[in-house]
Amino acid sequence: MSTLHTLKWLVPTLALAGFAAIAQAEDVTVAYQTTVEPAKVAQADGLYEKATNSKINWRKFESGAEVIAAVASGDVQVGYVGSSPLAAAASRGLPVQTFLIAIQIGSAEALVVRNGSNISKPQDLIGKKIAVPFVSTTHYSLLAALKHWQIDPTKVQILNLRPTEITAAWQRGDIDAAYVWDPALGKAKESGKVLVSSTEVAKWGAPTFDAWIVRKDFAEKHPDFVAAFARTTLKAYADYNTNPKAWLANASNIEKVSRLTGAKPEEVAGLLEGNGYPDAAEQSKLLGPQIAKAIAETSGFLKQQGKVESVQPSYAPFVEGKYAQTAAK
User: Fold this and answer.
1) What is the pLDDT of residues 186-243, one digit of tens each?
2) Of 56, 128, 182, 238, which cross-links 176 as Cys (Cβ 3.0–4.6 Å)?
3) How far is CA 58 from CA 50, 66, 76, 209, 309, in A?
4) What confidence score (pLDDT) does residue 19 get?
5) Residue partners of 294: CB distance under 8 A and separation at least 6
């Protein structure tokens, strides 16, 4: 799914955080993307500051591939990525751990075809220009959809563009279709129609998700920071999941999500409802063999497509559920 700005972190309310003491982690850089999800409110309200008692530099990225590059360089300690770039990073042995499943992707990511492009069915994509950020969840979903439709990817002109570049190319009329997320998705829908969303692609056997990852060396030094970060995110999800209608009726929530993501206020509700936000109990089930298997399957697909050179014998080392378990206590 995704200007640099710095937020001063406030002294935590330990009773709220649920820890007797939290070791301060100084100068933490967290990479986020423009994905619409409930925890953007916690980010806007400075709740991560209060929970971790740390100064955090929030950096916005346009794609998971860019986040992975920043994490690999050591510039970023915690990052938000999709399952496809996560699989690519793990396959290359990047020392990271998946400590929280952010969202289970549904209709918030979709393949949109331009009005007037003469694309009314999948086979009409042959010979057309489709833009997508390479090694992203939408790239994985696009390739999976083409495979499901029995369309040879080499017969489609697949262009590697970032979301902002997709919007510009769409407005110029340079592309016929795009598989992307918001705000680029919403802008494309204004003059296009959805051919398929990740909800359908998941049913075809290629589910995608977004996750929070952390560098292993940082997590080993600051486990309390990671657990507090997870707890804050899960609290935000619980607030939404308990009563989505009431949450969406709060204009302040909508404004904060819109401001951090670039999505139009009137689009926020639909985008939030297009994904799933696993609660603490679900995290315990996901963060283990299930997610390791999903990463392995995604990696295998990427290898078939020539996006990674090799796969790991096991992806279990790249998944760590203890931080979510600690946060849930």
Assistant:
1) 999 999 999 999 999 999 989 999 999 999 999 999 999 999 999 999 999 999 999 9
2) 128
3) 15, 14, 9, 21, 32
4) 36
5) 83, 207, 209
